[in-house]
């Protein structure tokens, strides 16, 4: 008896826009809540981070398509940790790293909030990319846990993508917005920790 065919997962395409993998196109599973940061927004973000990225340890929470973390690797981040709860996303990220011949990453299959609660890094991260699914309220918990559980140090940068309808970002008092823009329904900010 033939097994029924598994439904195929729809695929989207992202393009790495800078660094040693510039122009490389990669596919990712189109799942609910997975929306790669648009090229124009990524270009702005990485212009903001140009001086801080080479040699940086980065954390890409709610990694989704992996566009931001892969861009960081392409632009000479020393190490990137990816966290996502979707097995298809994690498998795809592993495949991308193999394709790009990059071994300076760790990938965790876990809910990002649960992962933040149970992990304590030996060394704080220089840059954190924080792009949770919109309208779920997870940004507040993520910011609190990043601050309280040793993920950051003085001078760490935190990039936040959030729905533009969010009037105030839920930042700890020692985080300060240094850059901010809006593109359609998305606001994006770069913060620095005292």
What does this structure look like?
This protein has 194 residues and is α/β, with parallel strands linked by helices. It has one domain: Rossmann fold (3-Layer(aba) Sandwich), CATH 3.40.50. The chain has 5 helices and 9 strands; from the N terminus they run ββαβαβαβαβαβββ. The chain has helices at 39-48, 67-74, 87-99, 112-118, 138-148; strands at residues 11-15, 25-29, 57-61, 79-84, 105-109, 125-130, 152-163, 175-183, 186-193. The strands form 2 sheets. A 7-stranded mixed beta sheet has the order 5-4-3-6-7-9-8, with helices on both faces. A two-stranded antiparallel sheet has the order 1-2. The longest helix is centred in the middle third of the chain and has 13 residues, at 87-99. The protein is globular and about 40 Å long. The protein starts with 10 loop residues before the first strand and ends with a strand. The mean pLDDT is 92.
Q: Determine the mean pLDDT.
A: 92
End-to-end CA span: 64 Å
For the largest beta-sheet, the strand count, sense and barrel status come to: 7 strands, mixed
CATH superfamily: Vaccinia Virus protein VP39
Write a concise keyword list for the protein shown above.
single chain, 194 residues, Rossmann fold, seven-stranded mixed beta sheet, globular
Quick structural overview:
The protein is of the alpha/beta class and 194 residues long. 25% of the residues lie in helices and 31% in strands. The chain has one domain (11-193): Vaccinia Virus protein VP39 (Rossmann fold), CATH 3.40.50.
